[in-house]
Design a protein that fits this description.
- The chain is an alpha+beta fold and about 575 residues long.
- It folds into three domains: about 160 residues, Sandwich (Immunoglobulin-like), CATH 2.60.40.2380; about 220 residues, Rhopdopsin 7-helix transmembrane proteins; about 150 residues, Reverse transcriptase/Diguanylate cyclase domain (Alpha-Beta Plaits), CATH 3.30.70.
- Strands 1, 3, 5, 7, 8 and 10 form a six-stranded mixed sheet that branches. A six-stranded mixed sheet has the order 14-15-13-18-19-20, with helices on both faces.
- Helix 16 links the parallel strand 18 and strand 19.
- Helix 4 packs antiparallel against helix 11, helix 9 runs antiparallel to helix 10 and helix 14 packs antiparallel against helix 15.
- The longest helix is centred in the C-terminal third of the chain and has 48 residues.
- The chain is rod-shaped and about 135 Å long.
Length: about 575
């Protein structure tokens, strides 16, 4: 509802302004007096609209005042008409005054006067504007600023002939030269601060783009670049410093930079908010706005800057509504960086809305017209930089969580779910690393008398026995050794490092003894024996599969003896029994 009312006010503004205009038979005199804010000419500026654009200064001076009107607001529309502004002033000799108009995009400005008592002009006519080199502008000012040298006390009349293709609302003011210089100096300081912020964000995030190679950073860099170019164009600094002798390039920049700013901002929002994932329906709708935003600079290139500006303002408003909606939906889906993005969008939207409202004549806020856009742009890019930082932190957190989850899944894939030892895949992965160098020993262990436990006491009791056996094996080896269950009642111990055979024999006996100790299961003392086959790397095999085959033959040689014991792969037929009492 609020947007509907705002749109109606924008449509009705020209009619309201026309109704508010009045004609007088006597001039409305502007009395000049020194002060920090100067003298506003609002309501005291006589306006004549020359639809034919043929009237010259002599014809305008000869017109009766009744052909002029005093509008409450001076507003330029999208049309080629010429506006004549007349100022009747009362002044005292002394300070030099400056007639100011906060306008950048007036294409043709001509000044005549001051005139006194119907005489000749006291100053030579001036002609400058957006269509002319910057060097022709009085006082070297980006805005209209015309110095007035009044030789004596009295009444004077000034005339401005203006033409612009851009819609704007202006309020003229007469300011003492010294005060005007101070105001310009303060304005330049603030401009420099805003430009510094934009340039710093541009350089910093360009480096981040080179580091992360993220599309969101790429569109952000373009957004900041076009924001900087748009603000400097609106402030007249592009015409002043970049293209002082090429007004056509200044106008082109003025027409192209804002729609490109809107376009890159839309693309940045789409990628930053990951709209394809979080808001797929709004993502599809955004394609239409992107297409319209791409058409706006094309219109500027084809010589329709007025259409380009109007379309840019409309797309910016609709795009803000779309992106704010997308940010809210993304926040509801726990995409937390959207909070920063939302804050940046709202900050710029408020300032742009105020600037548009001022340009349309809905409000009278000269400070907003002068500084609103650049302050809003600087605040937005800073908040967007924070948003990107928040996004990077979120991505890092997600990557850590993903790595942790991957590690858990990988560990689970290599772990026997019953005993917690490595399974065959886990054994293979560790053997691939161990069997690259050095000498190692593989012990293949098969339990004896395990099947009767399963048959007599059930699989649950058998599982508890397997768990305890795996635990006892892990107790008997070092951290660098590997304990694995291949399946059923078969286990593997892979010893890392070189051992003499007598030491390996002692290790095998120790494992057999430990396995053979009674295992308490549900109040019962259950016992199992074990048969062990030993294979040495690289003597008995060059790979895990070869070692397992060699150890398996040795282990079955032991089993054939019907005693708990062990045998080396190269000592088949000479199985060694464990000490008595361990079988």
């Amino acid at each position: 509802m609020l947007r509907v009312l705002l749109l109606l006010l924008m449509l009705l503004a020209p009619a309201l302004a026309a109704q508010a205009a009045a004609t007088d038979s006597q001039p409305r005199w502007l009395t000049l007096h020194e002060g920090p804010d100067g003298v506003s000419a609002e309501g005291k500026t006589a306006v004549f609209i020359d639809s034919s654009a043929q009237a010259d200064i002599d014809a305008v001076r000869a017109m009766p005042l009744s052909q002029f009107h005093y509008p409450a607001q001076i507003r330029f529309n999208y049309d080629p008409r010429v506006y004549w502004l007349r100022f009747d002033i009362e002044a005292k000799a002394g300070p030099t005054w400056v007639l100011t108009l906060p306008a950048i995009a007036l294409h043709d400005v001509r000044f005549f006067g001051p005139y006194r008592d119907g005489g000749a002009a006291l100053q030579a006519p001036l002609r400058f504007g957006f269509n002319y080199p910057f060097s022709q502008r009085p006082l070297g000012a980006e805005n209209i600023a015309i110095p007035l040298r009044l030789p004596a006390d009295g009444r004077y009349t000034l005339y401005l002939r203006l033409r612009s293709d851009m819609p704007h609302y202006y309020t003229a003011k007469l300011v003492e030269l010294g005060q005007h210089s101070q105001t310009q100096y303060r304005r330049q300081l603030l401009d420099g601060l805003c430009y510094g912020v934009l340039a710093a964000m541009l350089a910093y995030n360009l480096l981040l783009l080179l580091v992360f190679r993220d599309r969101a950073y790429g569109w952000y860099v373009l957004t900041v670049a076009f924001a900087l170019l748009s603000v400097s164009s609106y402030n007249g600094h592009v015409a002043h410093y970049l293209f002082p002798d090429a007004p056509m390039l200044s106008q082109l920049c003025y027409s192209l930079a804002p729609p490109l700013w809107v376009l890159s901002g839309l693309m940045f929002g789409r990628h930053f908010l990951d709209m394809r994932r979080y808001t797929p329906k709004l993502y599809l709708l955004s394609h239409l706005l992107v297409a319209l935003a791409a058409a706006a600079p094309i219109a500027g290139l084809l010589g329709a800057p007025a259409w380009s500006q109007g379309a840019t303002e409309l797309i910016a408003a609709l795009g803000t509504v779309l992106m704010v909606s997308a940010a809210i939906l993304a926040m509801r889906r726990h995409y937390h960086p959207a909070r920063w993005y939302l804050a940046g969008q709202i900050s710029l939207f408020i300032t742009v809305l105020l600037v548009i409202a001022h340009n349309r004549g809905l409000i009278n806020m000269p400070l907003v017209h002068a500084l609103g856009l650049q302050i809003g742009a600087a605040v937005e890019v800073v908040i967007f930089a924070l948003a990107l930082g928040s996004r990077v932190r979120m991505m890092q957190l997600r990557n850590r969580e993903l790595r942790a989850r991957t590690h858990v899944l990988a560990a689970a894939a290599e772990t026997d779910p019953l005993t917690g030892s490595y399974n065959r895949a886990g054994l293979q992965a560790r053997a691939d690393n161990l069997l690259l160098s050095g000498q190692h020993t593989l012990l293949l262990i098969d339990l004896n008398r395990f099947k009767p436990i399963n048959d007599q006491y059930g699989h649950e009791a058998g599982d508890k026995v397997l768990i305890e056996v795996a635990h006892r094996l892990a107790e008997q080896v070092r951290d660098g050794d590997v304990v694995a269950r291949l399946g059923g009642d078969e286990f593997v111990v892979l010893l890392n490092g070189l051992y003499e055979r007598n030491i390996l024999s002692n290790i095998a006996v120790r494992l057999i003894d430990r396995i053979g100790m009674p295992i308490s299961v549900d109040g019962r003392a259950l016992e199992v024996g074990s048969s062990v086959g030993l294979a040495l790397y690289p003597e008995h095999g060059q790979s895990l599969a070869q070692l397992l085959r060699a150890a398996d033959k040795a282990m079955y040689e032991v089993k054939a003896s019907h005693h708990a014991g062990f045998a080396f792969a190269d000592e088949l037929g000479d199985a060694q029994q464990a000490p008595l009492g361990t079988a």
